[in-house]
Amino acid sequence: MSAPQAMRYAAEQLEELLGRSPESVSAVQPTEDGWEAQVEVMELERIPETTSVMASYRVTLDQDGELMAYEQTRRYARGQIDRHA
Question: SS3 for 50?
């Protein structure tokens, strides 16, 4: 499976479980057993949009693209900027 296919499968299957459309896939990487992706989802829509609550989910897929696990790894305001030293 290619990286674009893994991204698509991760987003589609997470949407099915959560009932919310993913905003983006921010990372994807191969693992020994398949793929791991970070998927960004809007958890709570607010006005102004920059205050909407977003969540990052780590999604684990097997070699065939089937979802094996997912977990929420972070919640943040849409307008928040990460500062890395």
Answer: helix
Quote the CA–CA distance of 61 and 64 in Å, as a whole number.
8
How far is Cα 63 from Cα 3, in angstroms, rounded to an integer? 11
Domains in the chain (CATH in brackets) are: 3-77 (3.30.505)
**Is the pTM above the cut of 0.85?**
yes
List 28's β-bridge partners, or say none: 37
pLDDT in tens, the chain (85 residues): 899 999 999 999 999 999 999 999 999 999 999 999 999 999 988 888 888 899 999 999 999 999 999 999 999 998 877 765 5
